[in-house]
């Protein structure tokens, strides 16, 4: 190719190394560690038989069942760093006795990796994600109501019934008016109660207090659309039989925090399970 004075191409001196275009580094997306759970069958009993066919189920009825929350999109750096630090924090090794009214407050509960003995009374969540096919039935009888959950067994007042599992996401992940916005529950909302809880947590290393407090000053949701569990099908009621509660399980980072539904009354087998969407 001939180079003339009018050519727009710029010549490079012989001793100058060629320029290398550097691509902008892409932000790494948090890869969830997926622990799959039981997939419950969905029973549709609508009068219009055609709508009972699986091919006519709404798209929100299909998801991957999980037993542990996974990291999703638009999480702040403070939250992701707090989760990493929280995973490095030593877990409990001593037994803890449960106060009568402790269920109704933010509390710490032992996780599967805790080394406490069988005498520990904070193991109430050990079985919460197991045997859902034996415990619950998911069904719909009215199209407007959608799918609901009923219990197959008697549930005593104060019993942890189920958790609400999904992707831990930032507010930007929920588009206004989307299914994700309607199905998601808020896990953290610049909550001073959580920060005060950390100050009184005698099992927390002091160097973790500030990064965790920063994370709890953010807004975080649990989105159950892609990954979730039976909790996504719970109904709304102004007189619910379940009460929603946040519990730290096995650690004190946002990654260890779970939304758990507790029975606020005795529930008979066959009853529909509900909470106040509020």
UniProtKB/TrEMBL annotation:
Q: Which GO cellular component does the record give, naming just one?
A: chromatin
Instruction: Please provide the record's keywords in A-Z order.
Output: Membrane, Transmembrane, Transmembrane helix
Which parts of this chain are annotated as the region Disordered? 1-27
The UniProt entry, under Gene3D superfamilies, shows:
SET domain
Q: Which Pfam families match?
A: SET (PF00856)
* Database matches in InterPro entries: Class_V-like_SAM-MTase, SET_dom, SET_dom_sf
Q: Which GO terms describe its molecular function?
A: histone H3 methyltransferase activity
Residue intervals passing through the bilayer: 53-75
Span of domain SET: 134-278
From which domain of life does this come? Eukaryota
This protein's record includes keyword S-adenosyl-L-methionine: no
PROSITE patterns for this protein: SET
PANTHER family registered for this protein in UniProt: HISTONE-LYSINE N-METHYLTRANSFERASE SET-6, SET DOMAIN-CONTAINING PROTEIN
Q: What is this protein called?
A: Protein CBG14728
Species, as recorded: Caenorhabditis briggsae
């Amino acid at each position: 190719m001939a180079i003339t004075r009018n050519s727009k191409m710029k010549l490079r001196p012989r001793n100058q190394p060629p320029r290398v275009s550097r691509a902008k580094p892409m932000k790494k997306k948090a890869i969830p560690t997926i622990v799959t759970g039981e997939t419950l069958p969905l029973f549709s009993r609508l009068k219009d038989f055609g709508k009972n066919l699986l091919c006519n189920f709404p798209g929100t009825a299909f998801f991957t069942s999980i037993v542990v929350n996974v990291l999703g999109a638009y999480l702040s750096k403070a939250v992701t760093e707090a989760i990493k630090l929280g995973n490095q924090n030593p877990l409990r090794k001593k037994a803890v006795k449960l106060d009568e009214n402790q269920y109704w407050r933010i509390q710490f509960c032992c996780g599967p990796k805790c080394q406490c003995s069988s005498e520990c009374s904070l193991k109430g969540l050990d079985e919460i994600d197991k045997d859902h096919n034996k415990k619950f039935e998911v069904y719909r009888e009215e199209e407007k109501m959608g799918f609901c959950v009923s219990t197959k067994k008697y549930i005593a007042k104060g019993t942890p019934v189920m958790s609400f599992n999904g992707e831990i996401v930032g507010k930007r992940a929920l588009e206004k008016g989307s299914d994700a916005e309607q199905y998601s529950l808020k896990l953290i909302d610049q909550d001073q109660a959580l920060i005060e809880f950390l100050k009184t947590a005698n099992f927390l290393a002091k160097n973790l207090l500030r990064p965790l407090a920063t994370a709890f000053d953010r807004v975080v949701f649990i989105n159950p659309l892609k990954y979730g569990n039976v909790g996504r099908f719970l109904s709304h009621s102004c007189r619910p039989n379940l009460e929603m509660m946040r519990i730290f399980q096995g650690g004190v980072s946002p990654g260890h925090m779970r939304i758990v539904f507790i029975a606020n009354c005795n529930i008979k087998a066959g009853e529909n399970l509900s909470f106040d969407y509020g």
